[in-house]
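Budget justification aside, the reviewers requested a transparent look at the raw inputs and outputs of the sequence design task funded under Objective 1. We therefore reproduce one unedited record. The lines immediately below are the structure tokens for a 471-residue chain.
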């Protein structure tokens, strides 16, 4: 006979005297990718046949499989929560693994009472796990000490678990550049650990060919200290950071570099050379910065602009800023990116300049003065990224809750949003300056080498898109 269905809100056990030979209980589970990740995190079992998709696809099973003990552990789940239930103690287990469990398989775990032992209140169970096709994946027996006291407990609600796989998201970004030849990148004054490690990692990933510009003796001493091999990289020897910035701009103007990357010098020092009217890298566009952020709690990457260059942009400057971001979104694969023009509120208020600017930008987009995106604003941050918040406030918009670009009112607000997402939400961060002749990787001194590599990937995509247009 099958066991009675347990109440939805409570766990109630069967004591030894209530257990009968032939009683059964079953549990159904479907294997998800996050189940494999969680099991690996808990156990430390990072067998590449299980957690490395590329390796697994070349193995005997030709796909990612579950840890064997993932299925086996569900037998304990049935015993401890369903039958006999709370108070059951596992004593012995003998199981055989018959075939692998792969992602998407639905496993039915069934335990059946085979024998009872009155002298010690042990119960022997037959156990089987079958997949959605009814094919056995595990068979065996389990011996357990049955509970002797009746227990009825309210079910505990487990916390939700978010798997924040920054490395996986990092690899997805690098995959966008896979197969493209490396670009020549002038690295300006890479004279500390992170600013030298970043371009070298990007070179190893096949993204760039770095041209290291700075005091050669200092760069080589730093490389020797940290075990970096500079044998295959070009070094342009200059005396100091200001001269390095000027040399980098010259290399770009001469066609010897496709992009720039800030090293361990001050941003103003580099940007001063870039915006110089005499010999800089200006175009008809205003320069602006875009953060490309992959946030675990948001279904797609977010572009945030401008959080690094323009302190308090005017309406005219915002036109350039939003157009730069839209153009980058096109390169990243968004055919018609949704742009949320942010403010503190979602209605136009004459006392809040950012709401007036937002309304004007949207109308300019309607009239073709801003092209290639869908604009809406003003929108508060919650309305921009949460469809629930937007519906609660009665906002009907193609952008609200689905934003791909967040246009901030000023540098202060943008910088705060970006840093909060990076440090509190574990966002993968990349950043690039647009509007110059070439993309500029403008890093912070606190940025890791990985952030610099991610930014190089964005710069490489931009440089290749520019080449394609010029061909």
């Amino acid at each position: 006979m099958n066991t009675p269905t347990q109440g939805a809100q409570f766990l109630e056990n069967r004591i030894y005297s209530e257990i009968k030979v032939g009683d059964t209980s079953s549990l159904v589970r479907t294997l998800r990718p996050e189940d494999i990740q969680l099991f690996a995190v808990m156990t430390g079992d990072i067998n590449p046949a299980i957690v490395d998709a590329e390796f697994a696809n070349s193995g005997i099973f030709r796909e990612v499989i579950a840890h064997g003990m993932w299925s086996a552990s569900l037998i304990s789940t049935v015993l401890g929560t369903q039958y006999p239930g709370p108070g059951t103690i596992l004593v012995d287990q003998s199981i055989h693994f018959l075939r692998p469990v792969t992602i998407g398989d639905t496993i039915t775990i069934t335990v059946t009472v085979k024998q009872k032992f009155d002298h010690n209140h042990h119960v022997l169970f037959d156990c089987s796990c079958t997949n959605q096709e009814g094919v056995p994946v595990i068979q065996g027996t389990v011996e357990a000490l049955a509970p002797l006291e009746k227990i009825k407990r309210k079910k505990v609600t487990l916390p939700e678990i978010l798997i924040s796989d920054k490395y996986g998201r990092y690899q997805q970004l690098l995959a966008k550049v896979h197969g493209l030849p490396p670009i020549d990148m002038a690295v300006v004054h890479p004279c500390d650990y992170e600013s030298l490690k970043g371009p070298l990692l990007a070179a190893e990933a096949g993204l760039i060919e770095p041209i290291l510009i700075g005091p050669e003796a200092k760069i080589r001493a730093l490389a020797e200290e940290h075990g970096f091999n500079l044998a295959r990289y070009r070094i342009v020897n200059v005396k100091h950071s200001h001269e390095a910035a000027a040399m980098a701009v010259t290399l770009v103007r001469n066609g010897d570099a496709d992009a720039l990357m800030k090293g361990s010098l001050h941003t103003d020092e580099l940007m001063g050379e870039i915006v110089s009217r005499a010999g800089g890298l200006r175009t008809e566009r205003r320069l602006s910065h875009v953060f490309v952020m992959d946030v675990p709690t948001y279904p797609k990457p977010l572009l945030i602009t401008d959080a690094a260059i323009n302190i308090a942009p005017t309406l005219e400057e915002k036109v350039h800023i939003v157009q730069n971001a839209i153009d980058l979104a096109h390169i990243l694969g968004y055919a018609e990116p949704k742009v949320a023009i942010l403010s503190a509120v979602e209605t136009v208020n004459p006392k809040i300049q950012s709401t007036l600017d937002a309304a004007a930008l949207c109308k300019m987009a309607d009239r073709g003065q801003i092209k290639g995106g869908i604009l809406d604003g003003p929108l508060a941050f919650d309305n921009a990224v949460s469809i629930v918040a937007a519906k609660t406030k009665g906002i009907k918009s193609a952008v609200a809750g689905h934003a791909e670009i967040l246009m901030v009112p000023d540098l202060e607000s943008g910088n705060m949003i970006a840093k909060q997402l990076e440090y509190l939400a574990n966002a993968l961060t990349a950043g690039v300056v647009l509007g110059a002749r070439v993309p500029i990787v403008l890093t912070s001194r606190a940025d890791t080498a990985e952030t610099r590599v991610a930014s190089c990937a964005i710069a490489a995509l931009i440089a290749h898109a520019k080449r394609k247009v010029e061909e």
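The longest helix spans residues 449-470. The chain has a mean pLDDT of 89. Computational costs for records of this kind are itemized in the attached budget.
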